[in-house]
Amino acid sequence: MPVIRSIAARRGLAVIAALPLLALAACGYGSDAKDDTKTKVAAGAEKIDGLDSVKIGYFGNLTHATALVGRQEGLFQKELGATKAEYATFNAGPSEIEALNSGSIDIGWIGPSPAINGFTKSEGKSLRIIGGSASGGVKLVVDPKKIKSLKDVKGKRIATPQLGNTQDVAFLNWIADQGWKVDAQSGKGDVSVVRTDNKITPDAYKSGSVDGAWVPEPTASKLVAEGGKVLLDEASLWPDEKFVITNIIVSQSFLKEHPKVVEAVLKGSVETNKWINANPDEAKAAANRQLETDSGKALPAEVIDPAWKSIQFTDDPLASTLNTEADHAVKAGLLEKPDLTGIYDLTLLNKVLAAEGDSTVDDAGLGVK
């Protein structure tokens, strides 16, 4: 199987291998939930397969709201019985992949590019994508005084969260579609791509050090609250305006050893997405409470309300769009064409969906053979 490599790797630098190191400073995993009756183990509950706990990772982004809401409302714990759900939060995909590889987490909510990177770098041995979570929620927000149209982006400084992350790949692909040139590694060219942590991007925008950003929610709406304008919603670039932004991954070793626990987490995810879609206002409030627990600060209405509306929550991993996103990374020069066969194992998810009377989902030919 081809090994994932960047342009720099062909110059002798293993940039993808280095990405986790770049993210360590931003990694925030290890947070604990406030004591809440919804997250406590029910009296008389039994451990699944005798397992004491399962370690679950996610980001403090609204695009990871399935994890936020499922944790806040105790929906994962309900399915896990006396097997305790333990949680860790992250700011970047590479650091979550590192945690999965080291055993610091067992299951995680993550964007497509880090999942592709982790799978390919390990030659298909580290992880599987076992379910979908969200589509959409990514926007190009700009300073309307400096950028009035898409063609005005040329020559400007635009932030993305991290070299090689999902939004970075999407922006590099969009740049190429405009006929502009940018060196993917340095971010220099017809547009200056400035890799900036989502937590810092609003301040960078306010200071004028960047002219805009291609970012997920709620960062996009934070920029709008600071006077930015949505110039482009990434969903408009995709067929049916659907593309994967968040998937569920699992360590292959954990999946093999504890399939019943994995199935319980997936059932919790399916039930959470049903509850979110049936109760959008209550779910939005629950996600905000969990964000406050994790970060110490809830999102104001002018940020969370527009952000929430732009995200679709789905159990479907939208596998065909993951393959397209991999092609975008190849086009940008961040990947050699990867073999993604086996990146999906949707067996347990489809078992859960069938039991619920819901339609099963497809792996676009990229499932375990």
TrEMBL record:
InterPro entries linked: ABC_SsuA_sub-bd, NrtA/CpmA_ABC-bd_dom
Organism whose genome encodes this protein: Streptomyces dengpaensis
The protein, known as: Aliphatic sulfonate ABC transporter substrate-binding protein
Keyword terms of this UniProt record: Cell inner membrane, Cell membrane, Membrane, Signal, Transport
Similarity annotation: Belongs to the bacterial solute-binding protein SsuA/TauA family.
Pfam family membership, one: NMT1_2
Membrane spanning stretches: none
Electron transport among keywords: no
Localization of this protein: Cell inner membrane; Periplasm
Record keyword Membrane present: yes
Predominant subcellular localization, coarse grouping: membrane
Residues making up the signal peptide according to the UniProt record: 1-25
